[in-house]
Amino acid sequence: MPIKIPDKLPATDILRGENIFVMSEARASSQEIRPLKVLLLNLMPKKIETETQFLRLLSNSPLQVDVELLRIDNRPTKNTPTEHLDTFYRQFEMVKDRNFDGLIVTGAPLGLVQFEDVLYWEEIQTIMNWAKEHVTSTLFVCWAAQAGLKLLYDLPKRTRKEKLSGVYWHRTHDCHNPILRGFDDSFLAPHSRYADFSPEYLAEHTDLDILATSNQAGVYLAATKDKRNVFVTGHPEYDVDTLHNEYVRDVGEGMEPNVPVNYYPDNNPDNPPIASWRSHGHLLFANWLNYCVYQQTPYDLEHFSEANFTKDE
């Protein structure tokens, strides 16, 4: 698909090298169509790596998508050059008066931090409340899913005793839900989190459609009935070596982590890992863009209104 991103963004050359159609801003402006406007709130420390992962998944659709990158605050980070942030990222004040077709909120390395101790918790609340009136559909990923459940359903933070890390089998529920269209009955997806999402707990305390679960990892995919909020507790965007890099990091810090489940051949970290979730990740994002964003959003974003949305297709 033609994904429109700034020409000098590091992801541009990476994606073009993968034969992904990255459209220049000049070429996009000549097309007689309205692209989908998607905002990516990147909470991960290594922003260049994370933005590339998500942009890759957003490329698997025939729709033209115009992606803007959003940062949570203006604090400097040791993992991303300040020049990159200043060049490619927006502050919330720059976008708050606009409407967007979609918003993606990434994970964050805050699994053991209480919500009230998160430095930017107030900013997260502000953006999520803003999204209710300015965004057609929001996709919450990993830590953001837990934050979204707290803000939308007042669910307390639930922390596992041990970190969940690995690639787990999941089964689908409600095969006629459009978010699951084309899914196999079972599929693999990576997890890397301390949060706990049991199907029983979410079923008891929310009205969410629970769409995919794992015996080991709990709820993986859930959504509101109007598809305006979609929760993904894992990391379909991960590169093949992301879990490996996290494992090596934790070993180096003396944390004695468990070897990621079902990730290395023969469960041996000396063996190069194999990606077994790419097809699922691309399909999930294509379905979100099509059924939760494109088929729900108004053509004219200036006339964004709750009346635009229906609970059924």
From TrEMBL:
Top-level lineage group: Bacteria
InterPro entries xref list: Class_I_gatase-like, HST_MetA, MetA_family
Site (Important for substrate specificity): S192
GO molecular function: homoserine O-succinyltransferase activity
Active-site residues, record numbering mapped to chain: C142, H235, E237
Annotated coiled-coil segments of the chain: none
A Pfam family reported for this protein in Swiss-Prot or TrEMBL: HTS
Binding residues for substrate: K163, S192, R249
Function: Transfers a succinyl group from succinyl-CoA to L-homoserine, forming succinyl-L-homoserine.
Name under which the protein is recorded: Homoserine O-succinyltransferase
Organism: Photobacterium rosenbergii
